[in-house]
Amino acid sequence: KAGVTQTPRYLIKTRGQQVTLSCSPISGHRSVSWYQQTPGQGLQFLFEYFSETQRNKGNFPGRFSGRQFSNSRSEMNVSTLELGDSALYLCASSSAPGESPLHFGNGTRLTVT
Amino acid sequence: EDQVTQSPEALRLQEGESSSLNCSYTVSGLRGLFWYRQDPGKGPEFLFTLYSAGEEKEKERLKATLTKKESFLHITAPKPEDSATYLCAVQDLYYGNNRLAFGKGNQVVVIP
User: Fold this and answer.
1) CB atoms within 10 A of CB A108
2) What is the arithmetic mean of pLDDT over A74-79?
3) Which residue in A has a C-alpha nearest to residue B49's C-alpha?
C-alpha cells in the first residue's frame, strides 16, 4: 500500500510569491491534515480536511489556506511568502477525523529567499 | 492550550546502553498519546499509541509507558539504527480530531 505522497519535495521561492503544495493520502484515507515543522517551533498544526471541508484550523495567518478534492487529495497554498515561512511542510492522513494514528508523508521543504 | 515537553533534547548513547526519554504533557482531556520516530529528511513514522494511564506498548527494543502526566520511551540495548529524533504528541478529547500537539523531540544518537 503506497504511503502519503507529497509533491514537490523541494521548493525555493522569493519573498512575496505564492506557493502550492500537494498531498495524496493513503488509499482509503479521507482525512488530511497539514503541519509546519521548523527547528524553533517543532511541528505545528495548520489545518485538517475531511469530505472536502475544513474541520479545524491552527493559529496561522490567513495567508495559509488549503482545500481538499473529492478524491481526498489535498493542496495547501501560502500567499505573499515571508522568510519565516521557510519550513518543512508535512501532510498526514487517517481514515477519518480523530481516527489514529496519523500517517505522515516525507514533506515538502520550502525555502523562501 | 495543550503543552508537550520532551527531555532530554539530545542524547548520545553507546551501543547497548539502555536509556529513557521523557514526555510531559498538559491537556484538558487525553484522547491519545503518540510516539513517532523521525529520520533526517523524512516525515515522522508512527511507533505507538497509548490511551490510558498504566498502558504499555512494546516494539523490538522500544517500550512506551503512560502515566496521567507523562510518558516514557524506554530504549533497551540500542543499536546505531535506533539513532533518530523521537517525537511525542497528544490528541485532546476536546478537539476530537487530528489536531495533535507535538513536543520538540528527543534527538538520539547511538554510537557503535
Assistant:
1) 21
2) 98
3) A101
CA distance A72 to A24: 7
Could you give the maximum distance between any two Cα atoms of chain B, in Å?
Answer: 44
Residues B24, B72 contacting (CB under 8 angstroms)? no
Q: Would you call B46 and A4 a contact, using CB atoms and an 8 Å cutoff?
A: no
In sequence order, the β-bridge partners of residue B89 are B34, B102
C-alpha cell at A86: 521557510
Burial level of A61, CB count in 10 A (0-12/13-18/19+)? exposed
Is A94 in CB contact (< 8 Å) with chain B? yes
- Categorize the per-residue pLDDT at A107 as very low, low, confident or very high, splitting at 50, 70 and 90: very high
The residue assigned the cell 554510537 is: B111
Please tell me if residue A60 touches chain B, with a CB cutoff of 8 Å: no
Q: Are B11 and B19 spatial neighbours (Cβ–Cβ below 8 Å)?
A: yes
Gyration radius (Cα) of chain B, Å: 14
Please check whether residue B20 is in contact with residue B88, taking contact to mean a CB–CB distance below 8 angstroms. no
Q: Give the model's pLDDT for residue A98.
A: 75
Interval B24-82: pLDDT, tens: 999 989 999 999 999 999 999 999 999 999 999 999 999 999 999 999 999 999 999 99
